Amino acid sequence: MRIDLHTHSTASDGTDTPAELVRNAARAGLDVVALTDHDTVGGHAEARAALPEGLTLVTGAELSCRLDGVSLHLLAYLFDPEEPELARERELVRDDRVPRARAMVGKLRDLGVPVTWEHVARIAGDGAVGRPHIATALVELGVVGSVSDAFTSQWLANDGRAYVEKHELDPFDAIRLVRAAGGVTVFAHPLAVKRGSCVPESAIADLAAAGLDGIEVDHMDHDAPTRARLRGLAAELGLLTTGSSDYHGSRKTCRLGDCTTDPEIYGEIVRRATGAFPVPGTGG
What we know:
Blueprint: E1 3-7, H1 18-27, E2 32-35, H2 44-49, E3 56-67, E4 70-77, H3 84-95, H4 97-110, H5 117-124, H6 131-140, H7 147-150, H8 171-180, E5 184-187, H9 201-209, E6 214-218, H10 224-237, E7 240-243, H11 263-272, E8 279-280
Parallel strand pairs: 1-2, 2-3, 5-6, 6-7
Antiparallel strand pairs: 3-4, 3-8, 4-5
Helix pairs in contact: 5-6
């Protein structure tokens, strides 16, 4: 089985629609794909309706969190999307995205970049606007060569000149809320230092003690020594280890299935979840 547990669609900051994403996942030879858009489940219905035969959909979301001033992301799988407290927190995060993006555009203009809100809004379309949309605008304006180049301290990284904080969940609250909604949590790309500051390993241990289920080890932003370090930490803390592409369509260079999750780990995630179940494709 080939299992990719971290992808994005136009419901947040990917370039594939949810329907395109599941069709592309099947073409890439995946057996299981998780749709984990940022702080939203808005793409799940479309993905279900278009799910090709032979591909299983894992519903999820990537939750924006902050701990001691450091941003981090939690992948939440197979939770009940109607659970009111978790739904309310996702809505609070989404509602803050537009004013935050407008503020970043304002900072960029102060730095002499001729970007406009209208340009960014056009790129975002109906998706939940975020930094990748602003980064795409910078690429289109010729300010940077790629979306990745925009995520530096010069521009949009967590310590960047144009960075603006947003409403984010406390990760301990997020773990509690996802568990209450029957879901499973995995710390996304925990040591992706190229994105900015990362929480220390002691914080990962604290999150594990609070009920974190796993950490994403095999990821494009983790080199081989980092992956080995994370596997050792996971073994020490009793955490599951996952792998995934963090696919964003044409917005990033990674491809569906570039990193994958062991079938036994996937089976354990499904076993622990009680809020929702994987959706088998029937040829939508």
